[in-house]
Amino acid sequence: AQKVTQAQTEISVVEKEDVTLDCVYETRDTTYYLFWYKQPPSGELVFLIRRNSFDEQNEISGRYSWNFQKSTSSFNFTITASQVVDSAVYFCALSDPYGGSQGNLIFGKGTKLSVKP
Amino acid sequence: NAGVTQTPKFQVLKTGQSMTLQCAQDMNHNSMYWYRQDPGMGLRLIYYSASEGTTDKGEVPNGYNVSRLNKREFSLRLESAAPSQTSVYFCASSDPGQDLDQPQHFGDGTRLSIL
To answer: I want to staple A65 with a disulfide (CB 3.0 to 4.6 A). Which of A22, A60, A95, A102 is the partner?
Structure first.
């Protein structure tokens, strides 16, 4: 069975601190995709990144970076120099494009990040 | 550039009432999905449609029905609403047949309260 675990329910940091959001996944498939979404207080889901199972290169986008390690089945997300606007719920998700649900996303329960000024 | 449009955005129902949530996408995607989001639970798949004319159950289908009216539209119906169906409902679309790692595009959600 596929599963995504975000063990951190809530994290609170002070502005300019670095913060890492953990994501651990389970799948038997060799081909899969991993995603991060952001849900700000306004409620919409904002796509941040996708990574396929064959690409373990870390990625950096501005203050955001992602560390994908197949050996530990983890896809962690780091925000450097956090800002108040980063306050949101962050979801990690797993997709099995060859599975019966045709690319359905399996979500973790989310990590609520609060960045205080 | 509308993307995925959900209506209504908010709704309050009484127990036992019926309602249909509407979803439409203008990206010519084949696959469409309905999720519900509950506090502390993340998003869970209710139903999905891999192509026009097909629908399949997801993780939490009980109490819901869906219709894939055409390629653009995918509706979710609550025949007899129950308080346990109070949730935020998200519709999404994607085209995994063309681009397997294409992210799902989400609507803004429907906040449904059942009293």
So the answer is: A60
Position B26 scores a pLDDT of: 93
Chain B's closest residue to A42, CA to CA, is B108
| Arithmetic mean of pLDDT, B70-79 | 96
Place of tokens 């159950």: B57
Look at residue B69 in the predicted model and tell me its pLDDT: 86
Q: Are the beta carbons of A44 and B108 separated by less than 8 Å?
A: yes
Q: Which residues pair with B15 in a beta bridge?
A: none
Interchain CB distance below 8 Å, B33 and A47: no
Name the residue in chain A with its Cα closest to that of B57: A101
Give the residues of chain A that fall short of pLDDT 70. 97-103
* Residue-level pLDDT at A33: 87
Q: What is the mean pLDDT of residues B48-64?
A: 92
- Other beta carbons within 10 Å of A101: 21
> Burial code of B31-40, b = ≥16 C-beta within 10 A, e = fewer?
bbbbbbbeee
Cα distance between residue B20 and residue B43, in whole Å: 20
